[in-house]
Design brief:
Length: 494
């Protein structure tokens, strides 16, 4: 009998071997290449970059001309505020307007801008300028990891320079539009501080689009922008900026392209990717259900929306779901009902979309997990949505992100709770999730936390921005795949 050549696949290489005997096993001695996760192009470079920005920001905030001198400062406060700005969170140990001078506020909003577009996008943008649009494959893949992007997108192709430029241009475009509109919305009737309409418009537009939640507008009701509760024009432009900042750059690009096709009457060329369909559909479901809960949950709460006109009730309900990624508030979250507290915690944990300024486990991740669970209950082998099949790798990575997030968040919360016995469980949990999700909403206890708790929150903010999946990659490294597949055996579960 003639023996044919056989191709054997070892995981990384295809080995062509000659079978000398029918059904005779072949012993392969394969050297698996190991890739170091500690090189100059490793994900650690992203971490180093963030740490560098935080330290640089803390040094800038510690300088005498950055402080107002109206509050007590500590080194931990400088680190905390700088981390909050770089990770676009917005948690603060004291009022931004009260604690910092014009220079200090400018440092904070600049860090928020850099943190919003992403460290690797900013670094890649500078690299384009320095090298003349030359980015090699390793740099391209590093930028992709810095954006927590695991899909085969433009970042894997020669279009990386265009993608980076478009991200920066798009971010600047939205924020400039926001500045112009806010300048006229604010008007002469609103007196915020001594910095004038132009500076306040710049500050709030950057803070809104990048989801950092820093503000210079205070009232006596505990809300971060509560003095503008009745200004619907202000609330609408703020919500629009937050929405486009948190929906994801690739999705915005797709929407703009489709709008162009509509304007040219090329309706057959209108197309949305599966990712865009999932994120847009899931986002509107979250907005609808979240707004509904806030509306009915706070309907009779005299400390929030009770007694206000129905139009204001609806606006505030929608606003507080939109701001789950930004941290602005019109009310004091220490006074909301427990159902609203729980819903807000869940919304903050979910966050926004991948490749956006938002934190959290991401809308797409949650949707994939839910669809996978439904498919499993139905006994279906494949996970499908919108007539498309989601790969098993994406499903696994979604569960890894979710489980890793819960573990990291739980560890941080337990440690902080151990050193904060005087604060309520829900307040500490709310603060922890807000930090991890890079949100910035608070029940008001941040200013009363001890230094250790502030450090823990800073770590949670950094981890939340860095990405649980990327952190898992760092911790686990590139493991050598086993050459021998072990036998299966059943394990009892449930």
């Amino acid at each position: 009998m003639a023996i044919e050549d056989e191709n054997l696949y070892s995981g990384e290489k295809i080995h062509r071997v000659k079978r000398t005997q029918e059904l005779s096993p072949e012993i392969l001695n394969i050297q698996v290449r190991k890739n170091s996760s500690r090189g100059i192009y490793s994900p650690l470079l992203i971490f180093y970059g963030l740490i560098f920005l935080i330290i640089l920001g803390a040094i800038g905030l510690s300088l005498p001309f950055s402080k107002s001198g109206l509050v007590e400062y500590s080194f931990v406060d400088y680190i905390f505020v700088s981390t909050s700005a770089v990770t676009v969170t917005g948690l603060v140990p004291f009022d931004t307007e009260l604690g910092w001078s014009l220079i200090g506020k400018s440092i904070i909003i600049f860090l928020s801008f850099i943190g919003g577009i992403g460290f690797m996008v900013g670094a890649g943008f500078l690299l384009l300028i320095i090298t003349g649009r030359k980015i090699n494959l390793k740099q391209r893949l590093l930028i992709r990891e810095g954006l927590s992007d695991s899909s085969p997108t433009k970042l894997e192709t020669g279009q990386t320079p265009n993608f980076l430029l478009n991200v920066v241009y798009l971010a600047i475009f939205f924020q400039i539009i926001g500045i112009i509109i806010l300048y006229f919305v604010f008007g002469e009737k609103i007196q915020f501080n001594d910095h004038g309409r132009i500076y306040n418009s710049i500050f709030h537009s950057v803070a809104s689009f990048n989801g950092s939640g820093f503000d210079m507008i205070k009232d006596g009701n505990g809300g971060s922008i509560g003095s503008l509760t009745n200004d619907h024009n202000f609330l609408v432009i703020t919500m629009i900026l937050i929405f486009f900042g948190s929906i994801g750059y690739p999705i915005v690009f797709e929407l703009l392209r489709n709008m162009k096709m509509i304007s040219l009457s090329k309706f057959k060329e209108i197309h949305l990717s599966l990712n865009s369909k999932i994120v847009i559909f899931s986002t509107f479901i979250i907005l609808f259900l979240g707004s509904l809960q806030f509306l009915f949950g706070e309907w009779n709460n005299i400390y929030t929306i009770y007694g206000t006109p129905i139009s204001e009730k609806l606006t505030q309900s929608f606003f507080h779901v939109i701001t789950r990624t930004a941290g602005f508030s019109l009310i004091d979250y220490d006074l909301v009902h427990n159902s609203t507290t729980f819903t807000t915690i869940v919304l903050m944990l979910i966050g926004g979309s991948s490749l956006s300024v938002a934190g959290g486990i991401k809308v797409g991740t949650l949707t994939v997990i839910i669809i996978a669970l439904i498919s499993n209950i139905r006994g279906e082998e494949e996970v499908t949505i919108f007539k498309r099949t989601i790969s098993a790798q994406v499903v696994r990575r979604s569960f890894v992100i979710f489980v890793f997030s819960i573990i990291l968040l739980s560890v941080g919360f337990i440690i902080m709770a151990s050193f904060e016995p005087d604060n309520l469980f829900k307040e500490l949990l709310f603060e922890s999730v807000s930090a991890f999700g890079n949100v910035g909403l608070s029940t008001g206890i941040t200013k009363d936390l001890n230094h250790l708790s502030k450090i823990i929150l800073s770590i949670l903010m950094l981890i939340g921005r860095f990405g649980p999946l990327l952190l898992a990659t760092l911790l686990l490294g590139n493991r050598e795949q086993g050459k021998i597949r072990q036998p299966y055996e059943s394990v009892r579960i449930g």
